[in-house]
């Protein structure tokens, strides 16, 4: 294949694209080749972890000896890896063979890392949703579903908002038969009791919808619209000028952004407050979509970490008409908090939906080089 040479590329974006091609378009005929490449010393750790997804996806279950060896190799790789994003890839690889759901559950709940735990539970959700079409389960699919439902009860009791929100989505999914198997409303109520507001409003709403799907809707737990809770204090912007910038120091190099205090005063105020209090120090880039965005600011590292408040949306005449714009991550109007993203290219479909509060004026090469797991060292505001 013309794609194979790209597996040794120095660009992580190219590596990911090549690996994803094999994951999405692989064949059983090529599975052994993927396996041999994954075990070789000529590829890096990222490529290896992604290739194992393709290996386990396309190696036929009828090749029982090879399948068993592959899964043992994946488990050993998971256990020896320390990077949470690479560990997550190995969990996805395990998930390509549905009967791994028990070891997946074990690895998910043993981990203390939010990224690993969330990936594990999402993978279990995928196994559940695909159980009826999984011929490998045969007559055992109902048992598999019941056992996974039991793991979902454990997730609700975990006090982990990422796990709780994932289960809530599965319960509320009208295309799923999950509510015919799962009826642990006590676990949902326990999860509701452990939430903190306004930080966990989205999780609260998801749980309320889940209760409604189970026929246990209670007006006390009706969905809430929190609105924004962090006030704009103009005096806090007085130290800023129209030429104020922020230097985002990363492990790959520096990114300098111009701050748009006039167009987005509340967002700039919030960003400056977080930066000067060292909130962004050591935060990782948890989301990287080539030719789209890099995103950071989650204290959990999995994209679900929020501050204890929300800020208002600020839509202006600015447009995401080229790369380098800095925007606030959002789950809807007035839900912005600490996470932000930087665009790689023009993304006009974001206009009017995501606040623009800055623009990269130096360091786009660094933005383009950022990969998942890269880290912010420090953010320095130049007033």
Distance N to C terminus:
53 Å
What is the helix content? Answer: 40-55%
SSE pattern, N- to C-terminal: HHHHHHHHHHHHEEHEEEEEHE
- Biggest sheet, in brief? 8 strands, antiparallel
Number of strands: 8
Order of strands across the widest beta sheet?
A: 3-4-6-5-7-2-1-8
Percentage beta strand: 5-15%
Report the total helices: 14
Unreliable stretches covering 5 or more consecutive residues: none
Given the helix and strand composition, which structural class is it?
alpha+beta
Instruction: Compute the CA-based radius of gyration.
Output: 22 Å
The average pLDDT is 91
What sort of overall outline do the alpha carbons produce when their principal axes are compared? globular
Describe the structure.
The chain has 383 residues and is an alpha+beta fold. It is built from 14 helices and eight strands. Strands 3-4-6-5-7-2-1-8 form an eight-stranded antiparallel β-sheet. A hairpin with a 3-residue loop joins strand 3 and strand 4 (293-296). Helix 1 runs parallel beside helix 3, helix 5 packs parallel to helix 7 (114-129) and helix 11 runs antiparallel to helix 12. The radius of gyration is 22 Å and the shape is globular. The N and C termini lie far apart (53 Å).
Question: Could you give a short description of this structure?
Answer:
43% of the residues lie in helices and 11% in strands.
Task: Give descriptors for this structure.
alpha+beta, 383 residues, eight-stranded antiparallel sheet, 43% helix
